[in-house]
Every structure is written in C-alpha cells, then in structure tokens.
C-alpha cells in the first residue's frame, strides 16, 4: 500500500521543529530514522498532513561522557551506538542490547530518540533506559524539561511527549567499576521483536548485588520492573527470585501470557549469571 499524500518540511533547529509542530496542531509527525514511521504510513495506520524531518538539526546526534553521565543525542543511530567504544566502556547494557535490535539495514537508519518516542512495548532501548535509571530531555513550546525514564513510558505506544514536543537527548549514569549488567531476550528469529526480553543492572556489593533493576519488555504495555524479584535477587537466591517474579503478561500474537511468564523465568536465570559475573 502507498501512504496518503503528505507535505514535507526540513527542520533547521529544534525551535523550528517545535514551531512547525505547533502550526500544524497534531497533524504533523517528526521523521527521524523513518524505520517505524514509514511503515505505519504505508499501512495507513497514520496519515499526517506534514512530515517534519529532523535529520538536518545540528548537534542532535552527539554522544558524550561527562561527569560520570552518558548523554546521547536523540538522532544518534543504532549503528553508531553499536560501534562506539564509549558505549562499550561506559554503557555496557546498551552495547549488549544493540545487536538484538532488528537487522543491520534498520540499525543504519533507526535512532535512539525514535525508538524511545515510538515506545513499542517489545523494544529493547526503552527497557534499557529504565534499567539504567536514565532520563530523557524533552524540548517543547514551554522550554526544556527532563523526565525520568520510569515516568516517560505511559502505556502502549504512549509516552509523556506532548503533541508539540521533541525528544532531544537521553542521559544515564556511566558504568562504574561496581556496575553489573545483564541482557537476554527470546525471539523467533534473530532481529525479530522479542517475545520476552530482560534488561538488568545492579551494583556489586561484597559477594552479592545491590540496587538490582530487572526490567522486562514484551510482557505488557511498556517496560515493566519486576520489583519483588529484584529484592529477592539482591538477597542472593536466583530460584527464589524466579518464584517471586511479579509479572502478569497478557496473551499477544507471539505467545500466551503463561508461556511469556515461563520464559521470563528462563531469562531471569540467564541474566542473573551475567549480573553475578558467572556467565
Ligand atoms: C523489520 C523491522 C524490525 C524491527 N525490529 C526491532 C526490534 O527488534 N527492536 C526494536 O527496538 N526496534 C525494532 N524496529 C524499529 C527500529 O528500531 C526503529 O528504528 C525505531 O523504533 C524507530 O526509530 P526511528 O528513528 O526509525 O524513528 P521514526 O520511524 O522516524 O519515528 C518513530 C516515531 O517516533 C517519533 N519520533 C522520532 N524521533 C522523535 C524525536 N526525537 N522526538 C519525538 N518524537 C520522535 C516519530 O514522529 C514517529 O512517531 C524494527 C523495525 C523494522 C522495520
């Protein structure tokens, strides 16, 4: 199918993009990598009257590590993160997740901002950002604000972005010597969206772990923390953590809720060995 007709504008700056969004009152969409948006246009699930291309906005694809924080511009492409030595060193969870996202052709164009703004419940990066206790920077008509990742995701493909907002950057603490991360997902074929996935972060503490964050994707409308299992895993028992898994996944086209819950336990065992440094 072909998309419905739309106009095209190339934003020169964040302010220009915000102005164009305001002028078109909910009828315009931002175009980043286009890897999700163009498919929805082609299937006529969305028919905006204007596409605002943000690819020409200078500085939106920056990547820096300063004051123990990693900051990634919204337009940074998946492939850049996958190949970055800074990401490998300071954001090992993102480095582990990256090869699981789609296929190389999609990673060449897709952006971190587009992935977070799209908020697919089975996507890797939203869960990683929650696991890293990160935040997103949002620019809108009222200026700039920062929203914690846990508050940013509101529901199925729903975020706290307003209709005239642009997600401009992502920030999270850089890994320290005590940081432990784990990542695993199950998909029918490599590169498919996950049936269930788990992004995790913790701090090494003596022989065990503290500050455990277990964030599942593909098990609900948005990234979901398994808080009871986090507490039990920090206390040391993987078997008890699996029994304590506080998830209630709904059925979807990939699997029943019961199968997903079982797979969530399988992933927890795999990720626990990564967190404990035994994998
Ligand atoms: C076959 C296929 C398989 C895929 N598999 C996976 C997968 O396994 N895991 C995964 O995570 N993703 C997967 N994707 C999606 C891919 O990662 C996309 O790149 C990503 O979801 C969207 O990023 P984008 O830059 O292409 O955004 P676009 O498609 O350009 O935009 C997506 C949405 O976000 C909005 N948007 C974009 N940038 C901003 C911004 N800065 N501020 C506010 N709103 C913005 C757009 O208006 C649009 O509504 C897959 C895609 C395809 C086609």
Description:
The chain is α+β, with helices and mostly antiparallel strands and 279 residues long. The protein folds into 3 domains: 7-53, Uridine Diphospho-n-acetylenolpyruvylglucosamine Reductase, domain 2 (2-Layer Sandwich); 63-173, Uridine Diphospho-n-acetylenolpyruvylglucosamine Reductase, domain 3, CATH 3.30.465; 180-275, Enolase-like, domain 1, CATH 3.30.390. Helix content is 33%, strand content 27%. The protein contains 12 helices and 14 strands. It has helices at 14-23, 37-42, 78-83, 85-90, 92-97, 104-109, 112-118, 124-131, 149-152, 227-234, 238-243, 257-275, and strands at 7-10, 28-31, 50-53, 63-66, 69-73, 135-140, 143-148, 153-155, 158-159, 166-173, 179-186, 196-205, 208-217, 224-225. The strands form 4 sheets. The protein has a 5-stranded antiparallel beta sheet, with helices on both faces. The protein has a 4-stranded antiparallel beta sheet with strand order 11-12-13-14. The chain starts with 6 loop residues before the first strand and ends with a helix. The structure holds flavin-adenine dinucleotide. The site of flavin-adenine dinucleotide has 29 residues, from strand 2, helix 2, helix 6, helix 7 and helix 8.
